[in-house]
Design a protein that fits this description.
This protein has 175 residues and is an alpha/beta fold. The protein contains eight helices and seven strands, in the order βαβαββαβαβαααβα.
Length: 175
């Protein structure tokens, strides 16, 4: 594995899996949220995100976690492994709230500096986004999972034990 695409809904464990697998494999890790936001929670334009995402895709090796589905086609064409964290929405919402408490007032490791966790109207809007997109986002990932290009190895993780099995296998080869 040289280029690993990790996807799933917010709170599915993408960042954690990317960090852990990056340590294990030695591959460089890239977080979409660092591309999505600048300090102060300022969202980059779609064009900026497309360009920065393309720069990561073109690297020789990477673990790239996160969304920006606008660039999935390019990422899939460059990736050799597609890891989908298909976690139930209720658990994901719980995890988002839990990490917001854990990192309240601080920036998480997978976010740009100057993006402290908070509880405000944006938090409510984000939870609503998770709920509103639960079916459409999952359907898009399901299409990739069920009909991958021939070069792409696909892995679907739905439970803690599958998560652990992926990390315990030599370089994630079996799951």
């Amino acid at each position: 594995m040289k280029r690993v695409m990790i996807v799933g809904g917010p709170g599915s464990g993408k960042s954690m899996l990317a960090r852990l697998f990056g340590k294990q494999s030695g591959l460089p890790v890239y977080h979409m949220d660092k591309i999505h936001y600048r300090a102060g929670w300022l969202e980059r334009t779609r064009e900026e995100k497309d360009l920065l995402t393309h720069e990561v895709h073109m690297k020789d090796s990477w673990i790239f976690e996160g969304g920006h589905s606008n660039t999935y086609e390019e990422r899939v064409s460059r990736a050799d492994t597609f890891v989908w964290l298909d976690i139930p929405v209720a658990l994901r919402i719980f995890r988002v709230l839990k990490r917001s408490l854990r990192y309240y007032g601080q920036s998480r490791p997978d976010l740009a500096e100057g993006c402290p966790e908070r509880f405000n109207l944006q938090t409510i809007e984000f939870l609503h986004f998770i709920w509103r997109t639960r079916r459409s986002a999952r359907a898009r990932l399901m299409k990739i999972y069920e009909n991958p290009p021939q070069h792409l190895r696909v892995v679907r993780i739905r439970t803690k034990s599958e998560f652990a099995a992926f990390l315990q296998a030599p370089t994630g080869q079996t799951c």
